[in-house]
Design a protein that fits this description.
With 218 residues, this protein is α/β, with parallel strands linked by helices. The protein is built from eight helices and nine strands. The protein binds guanosine-5'-monophosphate (5GP).
């Protein structure tokens, strides 16, 4: 075999934290879930929340659904990497699964609001990559929220209002994708992820590999 050095790039990586934010309805959840399905090195961070499950949502798949008391106990016990109040509900990221994933060389994807993304990026600036998903138009966003038919009109109104505040934070992100066409937006998200994985700092095997390449030079 020509690669006598083994394949260190398959094992000795430093995992990255891909933080994806958007207003509700811009396609962030579908894009995130497809990325996790397509890349075995990527795991999805499952958040805890105090909001009620939507039709079809399952405990431990979309969220860990908690009472406010249980959620506050997690905060007090230091079990959350970050948390924020969004639309009168609490949302937070359990710390232990994220740490376990990073230790085994996995990347972690977070479907998270701007407050959470800012907190994680502050804790781990070199490991974090922030991506913001924009809708192509306000009409499109409103249509998608209605088509989902999971929320009442009042909840949709509140989500649209909150979406404006979320969009105002776009400039703090490393990358911005306008989700006009799902397949194209998904391809762009994949390009971002793959390019970020190739940064030298995320590949601690590189110096040793290059040394061995140079040793081999005739
Ligand atoms: P939804 O109720 O539509 O599932 O989520 C509402 C908002 O909460 C979305 O912007 C979503 O990204 C955000 N969110 C979900 N999980 C977390 C989390 O663990 N932390 C923070 N800060 N926001 C979250």
């Amino acid at each position: 075999m020509s690669d006598d050095h083994g394949r260190p790039w398959e094992t000795q990586r430093r995992g990255l934290l891909l933080l994806v934010s958007s207003p509700s309805g811009a396609g962030k959840t579908s894009l995130s879930r497809r990325l996790v399905a397509d890349y075995s090195d990527m795991v999805l961070s499952i958040s805890a929340t105090t909001r009620a499950p939507r039709p079809g949502e399952q405990e431990g798949r979309e969220y860990f659904f908690k009472t406010r008391e249980a959620f506050e106990a997690m905060i007090a016990a230091g079990e959350l990497l970050e948390w924020a109040e969004v639309n009168k509900n609490l949302y937070g990221t359990p710390k232990a699964p994220v740490m376990a994933a990073l230790e085994t060389g996995k990347d972690v994807l977070f479907d998270i609001d701007w407050q959470g993304a800012a907190q994680v990026a502050e804790h781990a600036p070199h490991d974090s990559v922030r991506v913001f998903i924009l809708p192509p138009s306000w009409t499109d966003l409103s249509r998608r929220l209605h088509a989902r038919a999971q929320d009442s009109e009042a909840v949709i109104r509140a989500r649209l209002d909150l979406g404006k505040q979320e969009i105002e934070r776009w400039a703090a992100y490393d990358y911005v994708i306008v989700n006009k066409d799902f397949d194209r937006a998904y391809a762009d998200l994949g390009h971002i992820y793959r390019a970020e994985r190739m940064k030298p700092g995320r590949n601690p095997w590189l110096p040793g590999f290059v040394d061995s390449l140079l040793d081999e030079t005739i």
